[in-house]
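In this section we walk through a basic example: taking a raw amino acid sequence and producing a predicted 3D structure, encoded as C-alpha coordinates. The instruction is simple. Fold the sequence below.
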Amino acid sequence: MPDQGDDGADPNERWAGLVSRRHVIWLIVTILVVLFLLALGRRFSRFVGLIILAAQLPGDVQEFLEDLVESPRATLGALSYREVWHFFKCAVVFPQKMSLLGEDKALQEMDALRQRYVESSGWQRVAFKAKDGVALDGCMVKPPPGGRQGWVVFMNANMQRYEEWLFYFTRYVMEARVGMLVFNWRGVGYSDGAIYSIADMVSDGEGALKFILDEGVPAEQ
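The resulting C-alpha coordinate sequence is shown next.
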Protein backbone atom coordinates (compact mmCIF):
# COMPACT_ATOMS: atom_id res chain seq x y z
CA MET A 1 0.00 0.00 0.00
CA PRO A 2 1.57 3.39 -1.02
CA ASP A 3 2.51 5.86 1.69
CA GLN A 4 0.09 8.70 2.26
CA GLY A 5 0.66 12.14 3.70
CA ASP A 6 -0.98 13.57 6.78
CA ASP A 7 -3.96 14.63 4.68
CA GLY A 8 -4.36 11.16 3.24
CA ALA A 9 -3.27 12.18 -0.32
CA ASP A 10 -0.90 10.05 -2.35
CA PRO A 11 2.51 11.91 -2.52
CA ASN A 12 3.05 10.71 -6.10
CA GLU A 13 -0.26 12.17 -7.21
CA ARG A 14 0.49 15.42 -5.36
CA TRP A 15 3.90 15.71 -7.10
CA ALA A 16 2.38 14.94 -10.48
CA GLY A 17 -0.17 17.69 -9.95
CA LEU A 18 2.53 20.16 -8.97
CA VAL A 19 4.61 19.35 -12.05
CA SER A 20 1.54 19.66 -14.24
CA ARG A 21 0.76 23.11 -12.84
CA ARG A 22 4.34 24.21 -13.41
CA HIS A 23 4.17 23.07 -17.01
CA VAL A 24 0.97 25.03 -17.56
CA ILE A 25 2.49 28.16 -15.99
CA TRP A 26 5.64 27.89 -18.11
CA LEU A 27 3.53 27.32 -21.22
CA ILE A 28 1.46 30.44 -20.51
CA VAL A 29 4.58 32.51 -19.82
CA THR A 30 6.22 31.26 -23.03
CA ILE A 31 3.14 32.13 -25.08
CA LEU A 32 2.98 35.63 -23.57
CA VAL A 33 6.68 36.23 -24.26
CA VAL A 34 6.31 35.06 -27.86
CA LEU A 35 3.26 37.29 -28.38
CA PHE A 36 5.13 40.24 -26.88
CA LEU A 37 8.13 39.70 -29.15
CA LEU A 38 5.87 39.35 -32.20
CA ALA A 39 4.07 42.58 -31.31
CA LEU A 40 7.39 44.34 -30.73
CA GLY A 41 8.75 43.06 -34.04
CA ARG A 42 5.62 44.19 -35.90
CA ARG A 43 5.93 47.69 -34.48
CA PHE A 44 9.60 47.85 -35.37
CA SER A 45 8.76 46.70 -38.90
CA ARG A 46 6.10 49.40 -39.13
CA PHE A 47 8.57 52.08 -38.08
CA VAL A 48 11.14 50.85 -40.62
CA GLY A 49 8.38 50.81 -43.25
CA LEU A 50 7.73 54.50 -42.63
CA ILE A 51 11.40 55.29 -43.14
CA ILE A 52 11.63 53.24 -46.34
CA LEU A 53 8.36 54.55 -47.79
CA ALA A 54 8.19 58.09 -46.44
CA ALA A 55 5.23 58.93 -48.71
CA GLN A 56 3.07 57.22 -46.06
CA LEU A 57 3.54 60.31 -43.89
CA PRO A 58 0.60 62.73 -44.19
CA GLY A 59 0.77 66.36 -45.26
CA ASP A 60 3.59 67.92 -47.28
CA VAL A 61 6.30 65.36 -46.48
CA GLN A 62 9.01 66.96 -48.61
CA GLU A 63 8.54 70.40 -47.05
CA PHE A 64 8.55 68.91 -43.54
CA LEU A 65 11.76 66.97 -44.17
CA GLU A 66 13.46 70.02 -45.67
CA ASP A 67 12.49 72.11 -42.63
CA LEU A 68 13.68 69.31 -40.36
CA VAL A 69 17.09 69.28 -42.02
CA GLU A 70 17.46 73.07 -41.95
CA SER A 71 16.19 73.63 -38.42
CA PRO A 72 15.41 70.40 -36.56
CA ARG A 73 14.86 72.00 -33.16
CA ALA A 74 12.43 74.63 -34.42
CA THR A 75 10.57 72.18 -36.64
CA LEU A 76 10.04 69.62 -33.89
CA GLY A 77 9.32 72.34 -31.35
CA ALA A 78 6.46 73.61 -33.50
CA LEU A 79 4.61 70.29 -33.05
CA SER A 80 2.05 70.11 -30.26
CA TYR A 81 2.03 67.27 -27.73
CA ARG A 82 -1.20 65.99 -29.28
CA GLU A 83 0.42 65.85 -32.73
CA VAL A 84 3.47 64.03 -31.39
CA TRP A 85 1.30 61.51 -29.53
CA HIS A 86 -0.93 61.01 -32.58
CA PHE A 87 2.10 60.27 -34.76
CA PHE A 88 3.61 57.93 -32.16
CA LYS A 89 0.29 56.15 -31.70
CA CYS A 90 -0.22 55.57 -35.43
CA ALA A 91 3.40 54.58 -36.01
CA VAL A 92 4.17 52.43 -32.97
CA VAL A 93 1.52 52.01 -30.25
CA PHE A 94 -1.45 51.03 -32.42
CA PRO A 95 0.10 50.73 -35.90
CA GLN A 96 -2.27 52.04 -38.57
CA LYS A 97 -2.41 54.34 -41.56
CA MET A 98 -0.83 57.72 -40.81
CA SER A 99 -3.05 60.78 -40.69
CA LEU A 100 -3.16 64.38 -39.48
CA LEU A 101 -5.29 65.55 -36.58
CA GLY A 102 -6.64 68.39 -38.67
CA GLU A 103 -7.29 68.99 -42.34
CA ASP A 104 -4.72 67.51 -44.71
CA LYS A 105 -4.21 70.11 -47.43
CA ALA A 106 -1.93 67.74 -49.33
CA LEU A 107 -4.91 65.44 -49.98
CA GLN A 108 -6.91 68.38 -51.33
CA GLU A 109 -4.06 69.28 -53.68
CA MET A 110 -3.87 65.66 -54.82
CA ASP A 111 -7.62 65.69 -55.53
CA ALA A 112 -7.27 68.83 -57.63
CA LEU A 113 -4.32 67.46 -59.61
CA ARG A 114 -6.09 64.18 -60.31
CA GLN A 115 -9.29 65.88 -61.40
CA ARG A 116 -7.37 68.14 -63.81
CA TYR A 117 -5.97 65.16 -65.71
CA VAL A 118 -9.20 63.18 -65.51
CA GLU A 119 -10.96 66.05 -67.28
CA SER A 120 -8.23 66.98 -69.75
CA SER A 121 -6.24 63.84 -70.60
CA GLY A 122 -8.57 60.86 -70.33
CA TRP A 123 -7.34 59.49 -67.03
CA GLN A 124 -9.85 57.48 -65.00
CA ARG A 125 -9.71 57.05 -61.25
CA VAL A 126 -9.84 53.39 -60.25
CA ALA A 127 -9.95 51.35 -57.07
CA PHE A 128 -8.75 47.79 -56.67
CA LYS A 129 -7.46 45.44 -54.01
CA ALA A 130 -4.01 44.15 -53.25
CA LYS A 131 -3.56 40.39 -53.24
CA ASP A 132 -4.19 40.33 -49.49
CA GLY A 133 -7.36 42.43 -49.79
CA VAL A 134 -6.14 45.93 -48.87
CA ALA A 135 -7.97 48.64 -50.86
CA LEU A 136 -5.72 50.69 -53.17
CA ASP A 137 -6.31 53.93 -55.07
CA GLY A 138 -5.06 54.55 -58.60
CA CYS A 139 -5.60 56.03 -62.05
CA MET A 140 -5.46 54.51 -65.50
CA VAL A 141 -5.57 55.74 -69.07
CA LYS A 142 -6.07 53.68 -72.21
CA PRO A 143 -3.60 53.72 -75.11
CA PRO A 144 -4.09 56.63 -77.54
CA PRO A 145 -5.93 55.80 -80.79
CA GLY A 146 -3.56 54.08 -83.15
CA GLY A 147 -1.12 53.31 -80.31
CA ARG A 148 0.75 50.10 -79.69
CA GLN A 149 -1.93 48.78 -77.30
CA GLY A 150 0.81 48.03 -74.79
CA TRP A 151 0.44 48.80 -71.10
CA VAL A 152 2.72 50.07 -68.35
CA VAL A 153 2.05 49.49 -64.64
CA PHE A 154 4.05 52.13 -62.79
CA MET A 155 5.08 51.55 -59.17
CA ASN A 156 6.04 54.69 -57.26
CA ALA A 157 9.36 55.45 -55.62
CA ASN A 158 9.49 55.97 -51.85
CA MET A 159 8.55 59.68 -51.93
CA GLN A 160 6.06 59.57 -54.80
CA ARG A 161 2.32 59.97 -54.92
CA TYR A 162 0.96 59.28 -58.37
CA GLU A 163 -1.19 62.44 -58.41
CA GLU A 164 1.90 64.62 -58.30
CA TRP A 165 3.39 62.86 -61.33
CA LEU A 166 0.40 62.75 -63.67
CA PHE A 167 1.94 65.51 -65.78
CA TYR A 168 4.96 63.30 -66.59
CA PHE A 169 2.85 60.16 -66.94
CA THR A 170 0.60 61.90 -69.45
CA ARG A 171 3.59 62.96 -71.55
CA TYR A 172 4.99 59.45 -71.44
CA VAL A 173 1.68 57.92 -72.52
CA MET A 174 1.41 60.29 -75.48
CA GLU A 175 5.01 59.79 -76.60
CA ALA A 176 5.18 56.01 -76.06
CA ARG A 177 1.56 55.58 -77.19
CA VAL A 178 0.70 53.05 -74.51
CA GLY A 179 -1.85 52.65 -71.76
CA MET A 180 -0.86 53.12 -68.15
CA LEU A 181 -1.93 52.22 -64.62
CA VAL A 182 -0.50 54.17 -61.70
CA PHE A 183 -1.37 53.72 -58.04
CA ASN A 184 -0.34 54.62 -54.53
CA TRP A 185 1.15 51.99 -52.26
CA ARG A 186 -0.90 51.04 -49.23
CA GLY A 187 -0.83 53.77 -46.59
CA VAL A 188 -0.12 56.49 -49.19
CA GLY A 189 -2.70 59.06 -50.22
CA TYR A 190 -6.13 57.43 -50.42
CA SER A 191 -4.86 53.85 -50.34
CA ASP A 192 -5.73 51.99 -47.14
CA GLY A 193 -3.44 50.00 -44.88
CA ALA A 194 0.19 50.40 -43.88
CA ILE A 195 3.55 49.00 -44.98
CA TYR A 196 5.15 46.48 -42.64
CA SER A 197 7.35 44.54 -45.03
CA ILE A 198 8.40 44.04 -48.63
CA ALA A 199 5.72 41.36 -48.84
CA ASP A 200 3.07 44.08 -48.44
CA MET A 201 4.44 45.95 -51.46
CA VAL A 202 4.64 42.72 -53.48
CA SER A 203 0.99 42.12 -52.64
CA ASP A 204 0.11 45.63 -53.88
CA GLY A 205 1.99 45.06 -57.14
CA GLU A 206 0.30 41.71 -57.72
CA GLY A 207 -3.07 43.33 -57.09
CA ALA A 208 -2.32 45.99 -59.72
CA LEU A 209 -1.37 43.39 -62.32
CA LYS A 210 -4.48 41.34 -61.57
CA PHE A 211 -6.64 44.45 -61.91
CA ILE A 212 -5.26 45.19 -65.38
CA LEU A 213 -5.85 41.60 -66.49
CA ASP A 214 -9.36 41.64 -65.06
CA GLU A 215 -10.05 44.80 -67.05
CA GLY A 216 -9.52 42.73 -70.20
CA VAL A 217 -5.96 43.73 -71.06
CA PRO A 218 -4.27 40.69 -72.72
CA ALA A 219 -1.32 39.34 -70.75
CA GLU A 220 1.02 39.75 -73.72
CA GLN A 221 0.44 43.51 -73.68
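Looking at the output, two observations stand out. The two ends are 86 Å apart (CA to CA). The mean pLDDT is 83. In the next section we compare this with other chains.
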